[in-house]
Structure formats: structure tokens, C-alpha cells
Amino acid sequence: MTNLPILHQELPPVLWHAWPSGREIITRGGAYRFDNHHRLPGDLVFLQYNLRGRSWFIQGKRQYQIDPGQAFLCAYNEDSSYGCFDHDPDPCECCWINMRGAGLKEHWQHARTHFGSILSLKSASSPVLKTMRQLSELADPSKTYDPLEMASLTHRFVMQVVAHLQQRWAKTESPVSQAIDLILREPTQAWSLKSLASEFGCSREHLTRQFTDRVGVSPARYLNEQKIHRAIALLRETQLPLREIARQCGFGTVHTFIRQIQKNQGQSPTQLREQLRHTQSTN
């Protein structure tokens, strides 16, 4: 009798959801090692938390020791592996949760790239652990669940993990680096470099130098370019009045907006909008 092959070609789920989750105790000498190369399904991500004992996690060429109260973020089909130390006299107890959904892996990997893959969750009352327990209960395969409730709770959990990583990372960054990150993250805000520098405890000149060294252009030029790009998109894609576009793009006043578009594009916002619409209609 011919064995049927195991297929992994099912359509990936759209709504975010957790599946499966579990809790394990690995005793000394127990075989516990997983290599994520070529593991399927390739869009699956997970978090594993150590309740007691130690484990290890390798990502690329870096190896981490995961102590009790710590967790690591991982994904299938990537250059990583994890397991427990064979020589430890104490057992390792861990809990884990797997998640899938459209765009979830991209969010997961973006957070790991920027803020790292290791979480410290020493308190059992941590919001991350609380939501993880709720998500595990909801994902119990013996029960039915509302897909929208599952998607909402999965999203909350992922955002809590990202926020925790970001807060820890921010503590290691210099104040001027945090100011630069804020500018890069929200370029259409009506920033005052002087006020921002004062808020983060540095001079405007130091902030400008550090920003230019990191980004390659001055903050004033960067912010103006980002605002103009955003304004052009709104002129092309919406019927919003010029005053509202100026507000959304952080130009301060509609007159500043008109002047900057005229200077950058060689025509007024109204003329540019007509040109963009005409180009769209002929393509």
C-alpha cells in the first residue's frame, strides 16, 4: 500500500490566529532540539517562554542562553534553532505558542530586526504572559472559538510583545538616537528641532549632526522631502482640499504647503493634481 505524501500546500490563513500552543517539561538527557531550517508552514511564528531551567537559542551566528523568566521569538523556515542543555541537572519547563496569519510574520520579523528576539518577563503578572495564557486557552483544539475574537487577541498579544521589546531597546539607546528614531517614525509631524532636542537633552546642532551622519541628509531636508512625497500621494489619490492635505502632511499652513510644492514641482498643487490625474487616466 502506497503511503500518501504529507501536503503543505494549503492556502495560508488570512485572519491572525494562534495554533497550537503547549507546555513541556524536558528532563536531563531528554532529546529536545529543533532546527527551524525548512520547517513548515513557512509563515508560522512563535514565542517560547522558560518557566524554569535553562535553554538555548541560536539565531544566525549568535547563541543566547534563555534563563527562567525569559522568552525568545522565532519563526519557521529561517536560520535559527533552539533546545535544552543536556548537562543541566534541573529539568527545563517551557510554554510556547504558535501563530499564523496574513502579514503576521512580516510584523514579527520587523520587530526582531529592530529590537532583538529576547524578552525578559520576570513577573508572572506581565501583560504579555497574561494575554499569552488567554490566547492559549482560546486556541485549545477541544474548543470552538470566534475567528474575529481570536484575530483580535492574537493582534493584541503581538503588539504587546513588540511594545515590550521596544521599551527595553529604548533604555539602551542614547537620547539623541531616540530623537532621530522619532523623526524617522513620524516625519509628517510639525517638528521643531529646537524643542525636540531640548526634550531629549541635546542641542539642536548635535541632533542635526547625528541625524545627518545616520541618514545622509539634514533633518530639515529629510522632513521636507517626506512631507512632499506624502502630499503628492494625497493629491493623486484623494479629493481632499489643500488645507487638509497641508495639515495631514505637517506643513503648518496651506501657504507653506503651496510654496513648497511650487518650489519642488514647478507648479501649484492644483496644477499638479490635474497633471497626476491626467497621467493616471491615460495609463
User: Quick one: biggest sheet?
Assistant: 5 strands, antiparallel
The total beta strand count reads 9
* Helical segment count: 10
- The CATH architecture of the largest domain is Sandwich
Low-confidence stretches: 4-9
Over all CA atoms, what is the radius of gyration? Answer: 25 Å
- Helix and strand pattern: EEEEEEEEHEHHHHHHHHH
Helix content: 40-55%
The CATH H-level superfamily of the largest domain is: Regulatory protein AraC
Mean of pLDDT: 89
Note the overall shape: elongated
Enumerate the strands of the largest sheet in spatial order, edge to edge or round the barrel. Answer: 1-8-3-6-9
CATH class of the largest domain: Mainly Beta
Beta content: 15-25%
Specify the structural class. alpha+beta
Could you say what the CATH topology of the largest domain is called?
Jelly Rolls
Note the gap between the termini.
58 Å
Number of domains: 3
